[in-house]
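Researcher: Please translate sequence to structure tokens.
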Amino acid sequence: MLFCLFLSRICALNYKKAQKGTKTKDMNISIRKKKLKDGRESLFLDYYLPDAKQTRKKESLKLHIHSKPRSPKEREHNKKTLLLAESIKSKKLLELQHEKHGFSHLIKDNLDKSFITYFSEQTNKRFDSSGNYGNWDSTLKHLIKHSGDVLRFKDIDAAWLEDFKDYLQNRARTKGNQSLSQNSCYSYFNKVKACLKQAVRDKIIDYNPAIEVQGFKQGETEREFLTLEELKSVTKVKCEIPILKEAFIFSCLTGLRWSDINKLVWQEVQYSNEQGWYIRFRQKKTKGVETLPISEQAFSLLGEKDNPEERVFKGLKYSAWHNLKLQQWVMKAGISKTITFHCARHTYATLQLTLGTDIYTVSKLLGHRELKTTQVYAKIIDQKKVEAANIIPDLNL
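Model: Translation complete:
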């Protein structure tokens, strides 16, 4: 840090000497904001290069902040993102000054740069997407466990990537001291590959060694769900946490994720003569704005209407203890399946397809961006058809 400040000071003095007696303005980089349709602001760098052919240049930082932060989490996100933007701006300005005043030979080769620091920067850019950020953050922790916090770009080659693959598959452990699942290995290794690909785009490295290494295959995810008969059974059984039971059944009838049910407020529950009851909300996972029709039966689970800004399901919480109570409630109904809250969304999808709703409509109801995501449920239904076709006992023909 002191070395960089020293170089910056020398550059500034030399630049003033070179410009003495002239009216040429100093080069500069500013952080600008651009308003987006979803209420956020994207950040970009605005370059002013008086000696270049193109004196003005813009560069997107691919960072976003909340225009009007409403919660401590959003304010913290803005603070971290703006600090990161300032750091990038300072680094870019220093590099320009080095090039202009002949100090580029003092800059270390890009391959000596810290891959851990760069990966951390890429992780922070995804702070606003909780699921994606969580996966990147977990990958970062495994990188540090595997190679320490001094991993450099020049340390990463095909052999290192193969060893990191082996670490994920055979040595890495979860918080519960379990081996990583196939899909976790697939996800974490892909984050490293994505980061190296971005490093090529950012001209930090010229070649991506990940193209020499085959990644993990994505494992088939078992999507547990309740049948219509099982759903009817659990509705007749008392749950130790009534709000949990109501929210779970509401998810079975609407397909809403836990995150969207938890943040649901009364102003998002709307009614029209043409459409009946529906929910107008922004998906927490995808950020897409959705209009989801709901049945009278689903609406009846919401209880008495409250203030527009109040949560619909007050007191709903997520924890290992709540998951245990959910499982115990399902077991009281005589169901031995391992059920989590997300199984309610799977239940909704499979029931819709089983009862004849076409897959395109189901995809839209679930808020999927791509039809192939919904096709996983279609495979479940096809398997159920095979089982149904073979359920008739042998007639000894």
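Researcher: Any highlights?
Model: The radius of gyration is 27 Å.
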